[in-house]
Design goal:
It contains ten helices and nine strands. The protein is α/β, with parallel strands linked by helices and about 280 residues long. The strands form two sheets. A six-stranded parallel β-sheet has the order 1-4-3-2-5-6, with helices on both faces. Strands 7-8-9 form a three-stranded antiparallel β-sheet, covered by helices on one side. Helix 6 crosses helix 7 and helix 9 packs antiparallel against helix 10.
Length: about 280
């Protein structure tokens, strides 16, 4: 595995790889790797010659009062995991490398970036699309892998890729869960034992929603009420949003007639947790 810290070194490496016609699969991450990240690496391995992972806690996607300074980091462990999973290129740039003092250009996907998570995190997706566009330009990957746990992010990146004509396939990979059903996240480390255990109610509520819809429930309000009731049992929690949306446009649906995605964001203790479930109707 080649660990690269500098953009100029990465550019040379990619140029050489492109000459040899090798396909490149990119997995952008913020590190503190878990099974969710590793599943993206494994998916890329099945489809690409070269597996490229980036680890960068991207400052521009954190709000002022968010957890940038305390976001969990363990580079030594991450490097070991990438070696173990046969990653070919690991890119770990510094913030000053990615955002030099004269940096001025941002990429922003309209509308989709201001709803759902974008409402409570106004600058978040602008930071995400800017860093992902930079990584796309640097790595020139054939495919890029994103987890469906961050469903809105996945849709926004698909829109950005289409709108800016990046010749890259965006691959959405399934949500990997803890044994209690909680979606894996680097931020789960912020939870107390009780919060962690009870946070399993998020996934349980999504499963119950699916059951209700399969039994014919068409009114989103009834589903949302049920989820609210279940989430009230998580200690130190506050619901940010529960929405039932069109899986492509992320517009809320008035009645459940076609496939929908149920999206939940919930503060639990010091963590803000998100989860979702695609329901085929
Ligand atoms: P992060 O390091 O949190 O920015 O995540 C990097 C990538 O891993 C993103 O595409 C996430 O959607 C994905 N990811 C994070 N957690 C999971 C999970 N539990 N299951 C699947 N993918 C995940």
């Amino acid at each position: 595995m080649k660990t690269i810290n500098h953009i100029e070194v990465l550019k040379k490496e990619i140029k050489t790889l492109k000459l040899s016609n090798k396909s490149i699969g990119l997995i952008p991450t913020m590190g503190y790797l878990h099974e969710g990240h590793l599943s993206l690496i494994n998916s890329a391995k099945e489809e690409c010659d070269i597996i490229a992972v980036s680890i960068f806690v991207n400052p521009t996607q954190f709000g002022e009062n968010e957890d940038f300074s305390i976001y969990p980091r363990d580079l030594k462990r991450d490097i070991g995991l990438c070696i173990k999973h046969k990653v070919d290129i690991l890119f770990i740039p510094s913030a000053s490398e990615m955002y030099p003092p004269d940096f001025k250009t941002y990429v922003e996907v309209n509308k989709l970036s201001y709803i759902l998570c974008g409402k409570s995190r106004p600058e978040h997706f602008k930071g995400v699309t800017t860093i992902v566009a930079k990584l796309f330009n640097l790595f020139k990957p054939d495919k890029a892998y994103f987890g469906l746990k961050d469903y809105q992010q996945y849709i926004i990146i698909k829109n950005m890729t289409r709108d800016l004509n990046f010749p890259i396939d965006i691959i959405g990979c399934p949500i990997i869960r803890e044994s209690n059903g909680l979606a894996m996240s680097s931020r789960n480390i912020y939870l107390s034992e009780e919060e962690y255990n009870k946070a399993s109610l998020i996934y349980a509520s999504l499963r119950e929603a699916k059951r209700m819809i399969k039994n014919g429930e068409k009114n989103p309000e009834n589903i949302i009420k049920m989820i609210e009731k279940m989430l009230k049992n998580i200690p130190n929690s506050k619901i940010d949003y529960i929405k039932i949306c069109n899986p492509e446009t992320l517009e809320e649906v008035a009645s459940i007639e076609k496939d929908v995605i149920i999206l939940i964001a919930c503060f639990v203790g010091k963590a803000r947790l998100i989860d979702n479930m695609l329901i085929k109707v």
